[in-house]
Write a sequence for this structure.
């Protein structure tokens, strides 16, 4: 919920020319999707049904799609409209980049091993195939103080912070670092995120800095 609210605030703060609808339409839709999710699991994610799964995935899709659309408009404005306010462009690029991290972090968190409820409620033998391989998944033969925190020894499962870290590293290095994508959908999502981050960093931010100079 906190990650979603941050993404909503970042979107609301974008310049109007980067939005495809009136400023509060998309945030209202995101909050509308968030309310029943919180109602089903008000404290911790322990219950899941088909409706919950659909709403949670729809929420992530709306956040990601609206942000990628804003990035597309930002690039179009940069190329065709000749933006002259470098400071505003730099701030908008930062907002889009941060929202990109949140959106894809949530996507990885929702999809990997059946989602957050399945990862914590089902025995390992019943989990769907993993989309990501974390270092904890293969640390059981390391030194004792490392092996004690491995998936096999401590029944460790990734949480939202782990997926946000994957999203941050993918947006800064434009490639996986210590966490490897395994499934085709994970590789596709990471590719889209990397390209979006690359465009934001190399094209938008570079242009903004050149305007400021």
């Amino acid at each position: 919920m906190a990650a979603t609210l941050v993404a909503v605030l970042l979107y609301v703060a974008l310049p109007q020319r980067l939005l495809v609808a009136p400023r509060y339409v998309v945030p209202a839709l995101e909050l509308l999707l968030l309310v029943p999710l919180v109602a089903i699991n008000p404290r911790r994610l322990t219950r899941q049904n088909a409706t919950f799964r659909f709403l949670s995935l729809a929420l992530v899709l709306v956040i990601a799609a609206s942000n990628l659309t804003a990035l597309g408009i930002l690039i179009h404005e940069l190329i065709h409209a000749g933006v002259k306010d470098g400071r505003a462009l730099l701030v908008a690029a930062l907002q889009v980049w941060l929202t990109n991290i949140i959106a894809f972090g949530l996507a990885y968190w929702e999809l990997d091993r059946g989602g957050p409820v399945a990862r914590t409620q089902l025995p390992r033998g019943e989990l769907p195939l993993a989309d990501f391989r974390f270092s904890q998944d293969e640390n059981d033969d390391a030194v004792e103080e490392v092996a004690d925190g491995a998936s096999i020894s401590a029944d460790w499962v990734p949480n939202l912070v782990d997926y946000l870290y994957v999203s941050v590293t993918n947006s800064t290095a434009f490639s996986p670092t210590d966490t490897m994508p395994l499934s085709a959908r994970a590789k596709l999502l990471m590719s889209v995120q990397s390209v979006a981050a690359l465009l934001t960093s190399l094209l938008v931010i570079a242009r903004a800095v050149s305007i400021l100079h």
About this structure: The two ends are 39 Å apart (CA to CA).
